[in-house]
Fold these 2 entries.
Entry 1:
Amino acid sequence: MSGRRVAAITRRLLQQFRRDRRTLALLFGAPLVILGLLGYLLRGGGSVPAMGVVNLDDGPLGAAIASQLAQSNTVSASTMSRSAAQSKLRSGELAGYVLLPSDFSSRAQQFRVISPEIHLEGSQPGLSQTMVQAVSESFAALAGQVGVRFAPQVTFLYGGPSFDTLDYFGAAFIGFVVFFLVFVVTIVAFLRERGQGTLERLMASPLRRGEIVLGYMLGFTVLALVQAVEVLAFCLLILHVHNAGNVGLIFLLEALMAIAAVNLGIFLSMFARTEFQAVQFIPLVIVPQVLLSGIIFPISTEPGPLMVLSRVLPLTYAVEGMRNIMIKGADISWSSLQLDLGVVLGFCFLVILASAATLRRRIG
Amino acid sequence: MAVEAYAVEVDGVVKRFGSLRALDGATLRIRRGEVYGLLGPNGAGKTTLIRALIGLVVPDGGTVTVLGRRAPNLDVLGRVGYMTQQAALYPDLSAEENVAFFAAINGAHDGVREALEFVELWDRRGSVVSSLSGGMRTRCSLACALVHKPDLLLLDEPTVGVDPLLRVQLWHRFQRMAHDGTSILVSSHVMDEAERCDRLGLIRFGRLLAEGTVSELKATAGVDRLEDAFLKLSEAAGK
């Protein structure tokens, strides 16, 4: 082995990188951006899950529990009426509420068992778990004093006791996997079209830009839908991911995401010269969306500024839409699903226009 | 359809890329049914001029008229065949699938077999392009450019990297097409190909130094060899 030859290769590699400013910026900038985002997300003073306390207890125990919960660091508990709690649970403002019945104190003294009703929204297992734990801790503090057993009655608005993390992530990932893979395949395929010179040939033909974009869109959408069938069948039949909604609606949303991904790929391919540069869009475009679109961390617990950012990301609405359909069983009459579909559809139109408008730019 | 006197008319076209003037008042005329050679060294503006004819480059000044219509014009592009410097093909498709694709996007419903036979690739029609030799790819690329029977064929250095035998074959094919009425613009930096053209345009510094037949150009420069004519005219233009 010749050290000189090895050094030549190493030197050449570093020389290449020195001239590739974009790769250098990515190599040293992207980790800071991604880790900074993650740090801010987890330690940036994001809000804790909101829960309601409905205290109907005639005795003193209910007030003591409510006071314990109000001091909790893991949930934001506020006392409210039963109807307000039910309404807020349905609108998604609360992760759940605990109801302390009128005979709560007397039963605790008589039977040495306290059984509050815990009503959970249920679509986000992480939040449900945090809430049940906070309630349990508040009771444990008092149970130690009065020597009673804690046996809550838990109900779920969505999902159920068997609803687990896979059910929660599965719904989001069914959409995300299609979006991500179609985006990568499109951007690379379109750059190959450029690189091999065939795009120049297409541009020298009577093809209109819209025809190229539409042709690409249809071709990849066919592939994406076949992929969507595979992904969905695998999740529902093999992994048994919870689905309370209409499979047709899931397909509709997946198709819209595939169309958006194809056009985003075409659009962003205008800003890359090589497939290598195209792949660099993944940490810049995809990773922040994964962190901020609610796939992993609930948007309701993000720090305020990030919450605003999340609300402008189209993937947020796609993920929310998928969860609305699969977890909550939403149909097209739900206003929240209409908003989700509307935003994803709007984003599709935007990227279609952007990709068609910029198609000619880098060819001249 | 009215027959235009010229297949291509370029008048005082200017194109700048930053501080570089790739075309600096280029003017030329290509008659219908002739093989027109655009000769010049690398960087002279040949490719930019061809790209201006098909609208891939938008001139900063001057006018470009192709087949009687101001460029860029999408309808006219269906009557133009364009062969890029590299054999721009889909490597995963067969020769026949490539030619059929370019026929379809140019609005032709048939002609695939004829085009492949013309370039003598019909027997290899089922081979994927990535398995073809360089020369075969060049011929396949030519088939893609002419499958829709264009009135104007633009060939950007089609003989670069081509062996002498194939080069002769290609030139025979170009001349056959011109004989059948196709106007052909061939760019090249190889002077010995000039003899095969009906007329020539010598291009350098983004403008036409001279236009005419080989003998006319030699006479204009007062020399016996085309290469010398080019050098003399270049020097005169550079002064």
Note: The first helix of chain A runs from residue 3 to 19.
Entry 2:
Amino acid sequence: MPVDSYRYLPRSFREGFEAFPIQETEPVRANLAVPITDAKIALMTSSGLYLENQEPFDTDTELENPLWGDPTYREIPRDTKQQEISAAHLHLNTRDYYVDFNVALPLDRFAELESEKYFGSLADINYSFMGYQQAGTPDWRSNQGPELIGKLKEQGVHALILAPA
Amino acid sequence: MPDTAAKYELPRILGVPFPFGHAFGAPNDVEMQREVSEAAIDLLTDESAVTVRKDLEHLEWPQDDRTAYKDWQPSEPSPIIGYNASRRDRIEEKKQVL
């Protein structure tokens, strides 16, 4: 049985989500180029996580312009510790990220599974962005997206698991 | 939101019965987080020609629905909520004037 996508959403939101226009692009599908036991996997979250020594996601500008969301992303090393993590997101309660950031970016879980040889390896650098974005995501299409793909290729990543918050 | 992902024909979708912001499960619930992580990795090995979707509907969130519904939401409504409410009010006002 499928999970209910709207279980924890106000009923008024459902209509808006169902009315999202379908973008007229061909779906992209690619199979893993290597066995899973050789695959390098990177993780990406839209929960607004960042490291304490990084610039927070810009919530001030979003407060002034509700149609805008910070389009930048942050690099999160695989050995990041809980006390190094902060979060900036105006659409979520970020409390649990200060308790256990693995609920959004499971670096510890993937490190454990790597050591058990469930898959090849976890990427050294994983990624976080803030999921509320300007309609059409123009910055991601022209800047962040291509840049991120380049970085994933440089790391030799075979697959990216995107965990929307 | 797996239904939205399916609408956009994303190639591999994992559905989890969790509130927003908790794609991999509850805080400090290592077993739950591992199960979701393993399921996500397993999906990568699927070579179907069409969208594949797996739902982990058997996983149980540790809060009742009412609490979970409130708990994931920010303490203040996000800016777009206020913006949309103002927009609706302005539209209603115009309708009344006409």
Note: The mean pLDDT of chain A is 93.
